[in-house]
Amino acid sequence: YLQGPVMDADFRRQLEIEEEIDTIFDRQEAKYLKQIEEAKQREEEARQREKNALIKLAIQMKKYHAPLDEIMKETGLSEEEITTLES
Known about the structure:
The protein is mainly α. 78% of the residues lie in helices and 0% in strands.
């Protein structure tokens, strides 16, 4: 950069082009990283909604006195998770 003024015009243009390409790549990388992060967040939200639905199902099954092993089988929740739920 310090030698910019003494460089010949072609070399300076090549350097400017490379800097612009680097800038474009940086923007694209940031864009894709943001998209990846948003996708991960959507997946986590979907998992949480699914877990909440399973918990609601377990609560309903407990309310109707379903056996613990059946609740575990249907919901995939652990015995500890199920026993701590309020019915």
